[in-house]
Amino acid sequence: MTIELLHETPVLVCAPDGDPLSSVADALGLIGEAGYGEASWVAVPVQRWPEEFFRLRSGLAGEVLQKFAQYRVNLAVVGDISRWTEESSALRDFVRECDRGRQCWFVADLAELGERLGERLGDQPNGS
Question: Considering Cα of 93, then 68, then 78, then 124, what sign does the dihedral take?
């Protein structure tokens, strides 16, 4: 994991390889790492999420997002999720709602995350 500045926003970027983030405890570990590194966003590649994360019935995505929101850390799921959205209209709706907000985004890559962060900064008064 590394901290990268994307449009003046510190982002904890997780490597694609590594243990799956299969529990709320794993999410809390990332939140702690983000706090230690003073990152306001955590970018997690799709490869690190188990299948259950993309199956909304499991509740894992909701629990994870709730923890991120509770600790005021933003989450970016990075990579191609079309495999799962093609199978589930509920997931497509969930992703669309997340992408409209400011807490969790589903992005293709870090470049897209950087662009969205830049747009977000432009929306705020005085660019801050």
Answer: positive
pLDDT tens for each residue of 19-29: 899 999 999 99
Domain count, the chain: 1
Q: What is the pTM of this model?
A: 0.89
Closest CA to 60 of 48, 72, 52: 52
What is the H or E stretch that residue 60 is in?
Answer: helix 60-70
Q: Count the Cβ atoms, other than its own, within 10 Å of residue 123.
A: 8
In a domain, residue 16? The reply is yes
Q: Is residue 103 part of a domain?
A: yes
Distance CA 84, CA 80 (A): 9
Q: What's the domain range around 94?
A: 2-112
39-56: per-residue pLDDT in tens? 999 999 999 999 999 999
